[in-house]
Design a protein that fits this description.
By secondary structure, the protein is mainly alpha-helical. It has a single domain, classed as Up-down Bundle (de novo design (two linked rop proteins)). The protein contains 7 helices and no strands. It is rod-shaped and about 90 Å long. The N and C termini lie far apart (about 85 Å).
């Protein structure tokens, strides 16, 4: 085998290797976009359920104006949030506001027994589970991408094509706090 042919084969193999690594980065980047889109879909579903829940509770607890305003503000903040960090913070604020709303609902047995309210509560709970799964999937794909950027030899190709690490969807300080259970 001639040295020229051997050189062409080696260069061809290197080019093929670089192209395959570049394509794997692009594939993971698309998966990250898809995973973020799933989080967005579930959060929008959650946002759409909230006005129905608020209106249902309002019918029973007309004097709880501040709680309704907090839920509405938190919902608006989530709708306008951008990026994993802002969305995570807005999602935490909305979760806290909803906890207050459901605490009010606990004080009204006839509301808790209403079928429409129970259905809305179940839908919201299902959506919460889907949001949690979507966040987990997003973070798994981001981990895979970020890991490829940091390990040799793919880090060389990532640097050459200017791939940068993606941001995780992280729990906020409020979400990390231990739940306090008080039986009084």
């Amino acid at each position: 085998m001639s040295p020229l042919l051997l050189l062409i084969i080696i260069i061809g193999a290197l080019v093929f290797y670089v192209i395959s690594i570049y394509n794997s980065f692009q594939t993971i980047a698309v998966r990250i976009q898809e995973a973020w889109s799933q989080i967005d879909v579930q959060l929008k579903r959650r946002i759409d359920l909230i006005p129905n829940i608020v209106e249902t509770v309002k019918g029973y607890a007309k004097h709880e104006k501040e709680v309704f305003e907090n839920v509405t503000k938190a919902r608006s903040a989530l709708m306008s949030a951008q990026g994993p960090k802002q969305v995570g913070e807005a999602d935490t604020a909305l979760t806290g506001a909803l906890k207050s709303l459901f605490a009010i609902a606990e004080a009204y047995p006839e509301l808790k027994a209403q079928e429409g309210f129970l259905n809305l509560q179940k839908e919201l709970s299902d959506t919460e589970d889907k949001v949690a799964y979507s966040r987990q999937f997003y973070n798994s794909v981001v981990k895979e991408f970020n890991q490829k950027i940091m390990v040799f030899p793919t880090n060389i190709i990532a640097g050459f094509f200017k791939f940068t690490a993606k941001e995780f969807f992280e729990a906020t300080e409020t979400e990390r706090e231990a739940v306090k259970v008080n039986f009084q």
